[in-house]
Fold this sequence. Notes:
By secondary structure, chain A is α+β, with helices and mostly antiparallel strands. Chain A has 5 helices and 11 strands, in the order E-H-E-E-E-E-H-E-H-E-H-E-E-E-H-E. The two termini of chain A are 17 Å apart. In chain B, a hairpin with a 7-residue loop joins strand 4 and strand 5. In chain B, helix 2 (20-34) packs antiparallel against helix 8 and helix 9 crosses helix 12 (229-239). The longest helix of chain B is centred in the middle third of the chain and has 21 residues, at 150-170. Chain B is elongated. Chain A binds chain B through residues 89-90, 109, 111-113, 115-116, 143-145, 147-149, 151-152, 154, 156-164, 170, 172, 189-190, and chain B through 3-4, 7-8, 10-11, 14-15, 87-89, 124-129, 151-152, 154-155, 158-159, 161-162, 165-166, 169, 175-176, 181, 239-241, 243, 256.
Amino acid sequence: MLHILQSAPPSASDAALRAMFAARKSVFVDLLKWDVPVLEGRYEVDQFDDLNAIYLILAEPDGAHLGSVRLLPTMRPHILDSLYPGLCEDVLPRAPDIFEITRFCLDRRLRAAERRAVRDTLVTALVDHALDHGITGYSAIAEMGWFQQILAFGWRCRPLGLPQVVDGAMLAALRIDIAPDTPGLLAAAGIQAAPAIRDSRRIAA
Amino acid sequence: MPYSGMAMQLARIVETVGNADELAAAMAAISVQLGFQYFALSHHVDVATAGDAAIRLHNYPRRWADYYDQNALGVSDPVHRASHVTSIGFPWSQMAAMIPLTPGDLRILALGRAQGIGDGFTVPAHVPGEARGSCSFASEAGRPLPQAMLPLAQLAGNFAFEAARRLWTGRGGLLPRPGPALTDRQRDCVLWVARGKGDWEISRILGISEETVARHIKQACERYGVNKRTLLVIRTLFDGTLTFSDIFRRRYAPFRA
């Protein structure tokens, strides 16, 4: 089930949101050892998790987290302009119709085949969300191993600057253009939503 | 070189290159712009047996390429092996610190130098579910690596591999073939095989009979069409049914309550 949520985390009572923040802690803090804040020892929540953030969350019917991603409006402070402006040699992408993709998170419980299905469903959800809401581009920062996968999704990408080693990881910023033909590009690259994962949609504000 | 010109050039290559010859020409030009002489885009498989399904594009001297193929170096190439232990580009001079190099590896590197291939820079390209690959840039023997260009070479490698991948996908070479799925119990048994346990040990660990363990493993072998447990383990690692961290990380509990 795809949830599209926009909410402030401290007051959020929604199970899907809480499960997402817990999954993010498990992936980004416990597994990837990112140095980011943890609330109550369980939830990874940072300064960008505020009312302006939008979350696409894939969850099981009982709310269990499968995968999620956070979108930040580029007209407000976001990760590329606030934390890693050096990764961008072009003009920083900053427009009402450009959002930054952050915290792309696949649940650690997933096995390889499920992981891939959730990943592909989340990528198609990103494109559908953009087309539904007039978003024409995404910016993102990726570690190099993940960068190659992002290119392989088939959408139009270009680098925003040279890769740099930051705290031991090599990162690069990129821009993804979203247009009416993007769903077709994804499909041609074999990226399809898994109906079982995405059988209904709920929008909360 | 101005960065933004190169960035647009890379994006354009992915979107507009229509065939392998055009990609080879574009890569030869980019290699020179980056300060290298040679490039090689490849899937890490034995090209002689994989045939057209595997990506392979390079401008190495013909004699070296022929020798490489005749000796099936695509699977044992130390450069390729080193690229499997990292996700970022590395100069070949660092390989000894990344993987154990056998006398045979050192011989291959020396032979390459004798053929005029000096130091190089290899960008790993791993797309889950597909054969691993890489994009290498190499200098003529005796010329130093263009250090200042390596970050651009990293990006160029990522984009070039994707450009090649799209061309080869168009040929039907890379379309994902769904592998056989194991049952959870079969997978549990294969996991313990990978950890070096025999049937009796696995039966004690999982609390099932030794005959049942043997049957699960035999059926898992049948699903993959292999007749040896070693091959079964390798195939499950390759397609992601098992991961190296499953095998090495003991605190991972494969059978959740």
